[in-house]
């Protein structure tokens, strides 16, 4: 059979593309080496980490804060890590069933294995699917008219680290609380997984090459998160790199190098490396077919996610940019529209929100104040602190009142960036994302009627403050 579309990789990007293709009546062949839909996001990324973050948040919340509400007995509470892990597996299994139902059915075939594009003929492309990546088995051959590559990315490695060092996958599956977890990389993964194990009692130290955690985020977010996590007991080694690491009797010994050549040594029972993600090393036969890659190994695509080879599109982490599940899904839908000849508006990088699910949460969309300063663009700024928000007071616990909403706008009042630290920041950013998407002004936002009492009133107040502010001229 000749399928209209072959989708290689069924993470959030591939799944969204399959759903859109099936809505449009295309027959689809899906191939994923995992043998289940959902990709890294579902099986070893966003979903499991959020289960662990939520469970450990409940635990800490109960231990630390409920006495203020007259709820006692906190000191007797315990958290069973094995049960927490079982809960995580149950959530993954439930969502995986949903993903699989999307991949199967009329005009859709889902195949487990490693795909290799062996070439093209006058009808389309030949895809050989193998049990192993080495392709030493015979493989099964399929034919597809067009191809969508959605194979994601892989964790970056550090050559100085010995085997046994954890990546995010293994750190999500520990069956006991580490005594001292040393996290290399103060980004999304480092702070989220560091939070999980810190809440359960691990000592957590973060080694970060830059002078700040969360590089690329707005400076006020970076500082607020640094303060909040320090209060929770994180310790920091900033502006240093790991120069060497060895294991002796189950203990990791690391030598860290500072920019001024100073060295320090650290010992830890567990090491997690979370220094970003990189392109997959395998090219699945695409290079031989002439598909162009950039110097970092990412597939080059145009605005419609088309590669330079007619009939081949690529989306998600494998084309670079922000490595976020929701970016991949948005691109998946647009790539199918583009294959079907529909011209849709581009997914703009600055309209893609980012959330860090620590406590407090941090969420951002659009330009940071640092980026506006660098571009020498006049801008206005308004901030509303949650301590001025009624709903934050009613929530009270776990630093709900420590956060803020910061709205940045161009000189003409159009909102160009929103940055939030606080409880539920990850949900609140949705409204800000819409504001940017529809080019809302601060005046539009401040004149809307927001329900009371809600945390979202702080967004309206911050927009009103930005509306009234005089522009900064960097
Ligand atoms: P990241 O890019 O967020 O952070 C990596 C950090 O490691 C950076 O601060 C970088 O300066 C530091 N670093 C790099 N080399 C280093 C070295 N040699 N020594 C010490 N520090 C070093 O990457 P991360 O945390 O690994 O996450 C990977 C991707 O997964 C991210 O791009 C993120 O988009 C995605 N992700 C998203 C989440 C979310 O949406 N909540 C959660 C987890 C991951």
Structure description:
Strands 1, 2, 3, 4, 5, 6 and 16 form a seven-stranded mixed sheet that branches. This protein has a five-stranded antiparallel sheet with strand order 17-18-21-20-19, with helices on both faces. A four-stranded parallel sheet has the order 10-9-8-14, covered by helices on one side. It contains 13 helices and 21 strands. The protein is α/β, with parallel strands linked by helices. Helices cover 31% and strands 25% of the residues. It has helices at residues 12-23, 39-44, 46-64, 81-103, 168-171, 188-199, 219-231, 325-339, 369-374, 390-395, 425-437, 442-446, 457-468; strands at 2-8, 28-32, 108-112, 114-120, 125-130, 140-149, 154-155, 180-184, 203-208, 235-238, 240-248, 251-258, 263-268, 270-273, 277-278, 312-314, 354-356, 361-366, 379-385, 404-410, 415-422. α1 runs parallel beside α8 (325-339), α3 runs antiparallel to α4 (81-103) and α3 packs across α6 (188-199). The longest helix is centred in the first third of the chain and has 23 residues, at 81-103. A hairpin with a 4-residue loop joins β4 (114-120) and β5. 1,4-dihydronicotinamide adenine dinucleotide binds at residues 158, 184-190, 192, 207-210, 215, 241-242, 274-277, 323-324, 355-357.
